Amino acid sequence: MIQSDKGADPPDKKDMKLSTATNPQNGLSQILRLVLQELSLFYSRDVNGVCLLYDLLHSPWLQALLKIYDCLQEFKEKKLVPATPHAQTLSYEVVELLRETPTSPEIQELRQMLQAPHFKALLNAHDTIAQKDFEPLLPPLPDNIPESEEAMRIVCLVKNQQPLGATIKRHEITGDILVARVIHGGLAERSGLLYAGDKLVEVNGVSVEGLDPEQVIHILAMSRGTIMFKVVPVSDPPVNSQKMVYVRAMTEYWPQEDPDIPCMDAGLPFQKGDILQIVDQNDALWWQARKISDPATCAGLVPSNHLLKRKQREFWWSQPYQPHTCLKSTLYKEEFVGYGQKFFIAGFRRSMRLCRRKSHLSPLHASVCCTGSCYSAVGAPYEEVVRYQRRPSDKYRLIVLMGPSGVGVNELRRQLIEFNPSHFQSAVPHTTRTKKSYEMNGREYHYVSKETFESLIYSHRMLEYGEYKGHLYGTSVDAVQTVLDERKICVMDLEPQDIQVVRTHELKPYVIFIKPSNMRCMKQSRKNAKIITDYFVDMKFKDEDLQEMENLAQRMETQFGQFFDHVIVNDSLHDACAQLLSAIQKAQEEPQWVPATWISSDTES
Ligand SMILES: Nc1ncnc2c1ncn2[C@@H]1O[C@H](COP(=O)(O)OP(=O)(O)OP(=O)(O)O)[C@@H](O)[C@H]1O
């Protein structure tokens, strides 16, 4: 039995009314109204997805659409007829009458308007429609057509700047030239007259019998204006009934470098992190997709998940063996940043940051999880994604900052927390080292035994950890959850190798990559910046430090760019902070693409 929770605000009854039409055949509006009423009962009970569905059905654009639908239904019923079937003659008569009227500027203007070509064309169109005179007159079919004659279709397409949007192939046995695929959004598909499997008989009056596909393409390339195809239609035109799927490309693809692609010109190149709309998966090997950043263009061919995985594997095995290389850092910073300030910020200590950088070298780490570089060798080439909009009642998404050492990740994180400590916070890390006299358990660190720390690792409760001077340091899921449970935004910095561990539906991380600007700008902006390394105190950035930072940033982008939701170039600190604030606000308040598994896990829980 469905009950309403009295504690919550019931949705406004007035707004629920979707349509005012009284037409008894108006079933769609009626059904939607009932669905809304039903949903309003669940609304206050926080049932997963109901609020989203309710808001969708309640949205002004859907209601407006329904109103339009209702109006159209009403007009359909009325069977409107034109006031006059011959508006053109009426117009001639008016012009004649005006001739006999004394001339004035207004009469002159009216006469000109009635005789203007566009007005005449409009009246002509009106008369054609009024007389329902749009069916072309076809000659009668000859009586003596043999039974075995194949039905032909004549297709005329007007060539413009766009490609025709179809590929052809030769049938291996019969040698016929067939339409291999029709590309979504292309001229051929929009005409609705050509289908994959249609047999080409003639192009512009030239028979294609015995020709190679290349020769047919040459004829097409030479044609100007209208192209006429004579085809034998495929008996069963393929129907694309698959649902639209969106994926994030986890690898890059360049059709020009792929000798296997059936038609290089029809290929769609993409880069890591691009969001693709998969519009056709009928072929097991070659899908059709378009980039959501470029929705107006027609689709292109991309390798299917299965094929791309195979290609990745073949590429991986063809590479010479390389021992595991890590993104290493040489720039180290001071011991303690948060101490002595108005409020305390945890997680900025040098020990913590150094162990982070060394974490992927630890044998313990290697035995528990797979690093990012392993991931790129065997991981899925596409990740299914959906649009996710955080609801105000949801916890905040975890904000992850990453970047090469010295780029300013910690400076930005610190400034953010200082800007609004009641809104932004770091997680308190764990350590196995002993507490110092001025420290407090749960403020600088959670001080735990080695056994406790290791059990957290083995139970996958550590998001990142490492060893420094014989002690373990790390950040736990629970420490992050504590911040999120307080309805604050948790901001953490992470090495890219650890990114897979935080990508869970629980934390829904939003990853921001902090990137150095070019060397010339960096030399200027870091003129007075001081770094403290393991060996020197207050050392200025040297050119080689900046160069290494740039190289490291490039490697990080190449290897992990698919995981970055946003990139900020840290040139002016002030601008970078402003960009960071705005990016975080968008991450929390605007729809974003997230892995589909994060959302399905939500529904299951
Ligand atoms: N945009 C900037 N302009 C000038 N100085 C900057 C800028 N960003 C950061 N700095 C300075 O550069 C130095 C290094 O920054 P920070 O400590 O934040 O680096 P990091 O990315 O956290 O690397 P690490 O963890 O190795 O210290 C600091 O002195 C910081 O104040």
TrEMBL record:
Record-annotated PDZ domain positions: 154-235
Gene3D superfamilies (alphabetical): 2.30.42.10, L27 domain, P-loop containing nucleotide triphosphate hydrolases, SH3 Domains
The L27 domain, residue ranges: 24-80, 87-137
Keyword Zinc-finger: no
Keyword terms, alphabetized: Coiled coil, Cytoplasm, Repeat, SH3 domain
Keyword Coiled coil found: yes
Coarse class of the protein's main subcellular location: cytoplasm
Signal peptide: none
Its biological purpose: May play a role in retinal photoreceptors development.
Family: Belongs to the MAGUK family.
Full protein name: MAGUK p55 subfamily member 4
Species name: Theropithecus gelada (Gelada baboon)
